[in-house]
Amino acid sequence: MTRTDTPAISDTPATPESTPRTRARLLRTLPALPRLLIVTQCAFNIGFFAVLPYLAAHLSGTLGLAGWLVGLVLGLRTFSQQGLFVVGGALTDRYGPRPVVLVGCALRVLGFGWLGFAEATWAVLGAVLLVGFAAALFSPAVETEIARQAVRHEEATGVARTRVLALFSAGGQAGALLGPVLGAALLAGGFSAACLAGAGMFVLILAGHWWLMPRMPRMLRMPHAAPSTTTRPAPDGGGLRELARNRAFLALCLAYSTYLLAYNQLYLALPAELDRSTGSQAALGWLFALSSVLVIAGQLPLSRWAAARLTHPAALRCGLGLIAGAFLAAGALLPVGGLVPALAFVVLLTVGQMLVVPAARAWLPDLVPDHRLGLCTGALSSVSGAVVLLGGAPSGALLARGGVLPWMALAAVPLAGLLMVRGRRGADGGSETGSQVR
After folding, report:
1. 410 or 77, greater pLDDT
2. pLDDT band with cut points at 50, 70 and 90 for residue 239
3. Could you give the CA distance from residue 108 to residue 198 in angstroms, rounded to a whole number?
């Protein structure tokens, strides 16, 4: 049965959550499994962001690929990752997170090693697809379990689940802060050095999960779930049919896909703007670092503020509105020149992301059955990945034209997502839950 009883608004007493000490205290109060997931998410992003911010420059500069082809490669990477999350999610439901995480780490090691030395277009495409598919295994397994653990912790302690999910996001952003710095330091030895460093980080993650992740996690279902949900469903396609009938979940997928397409412009529109305004991408690593610092410092207090005042759908709408504002602000500030448009874009996009991601992850368990949580977590990203794949090449071609028009056109993407977010407030003033599964 789909959960309908968890309120989106927290009544936890207000306490400051903005200092490293309070974040560390919250981390220490968590059980061992969510702590492991948060720490390895940080390490995952260190390895990932040591490579990804510099991929577009490597493709267009070192390898000399055309702008549309660079956009296509980046779109394929996102699709092979986000688009195939449904595979990793379904495998997680069936076998548990541990084996899926381990295989994903091993494939990421191979993919980064291949990408570091790939020169032909076909080799680059193959390496990028392998790198993306590795994350399609690792990430849905981790995200499914952290969502399940966040709900469990909320029901056991009263701490809003968004705070645990915010800590997960902050841990990931800490890795995203350190990754580009590591990559920039290694680029003196060439792009291959950054790729090998990323592969080495995933070797460490693989070893950590091999030794520390439970083989048979006890928490395969939420405490409130009916006993029948402990039985793994047969792979008969019934899960996909069930999701296809869940209109609230499908609307969330579409809204989240507009966020991901907009966020993907950090790797496409932002480098293009830096080339236009400064003649180089030297500031790219620093702007990624700024985004990460904003999340590390602001994710927990912003999530606490949103949990106390906004339902999950409302927080999602606010975040998408801020992301649309990021594109509008960047376009309006183009005449100013310098780093001002890029700074405005990064700040507003990051704050919007800080609202969208925890809200979507926290809302998802209320919309779907627990025994389908892995599949639904994967499907959420798969739909988003397909949208990014379809929008990658057109976005690259649009940005190649330059000027204000591309930014205004891209602002329409999250605005469309904002209109797709479903949810209504009940007559009793209760939480906004959206359409329920029958």
Report:
1. 410
2. low
3. 9
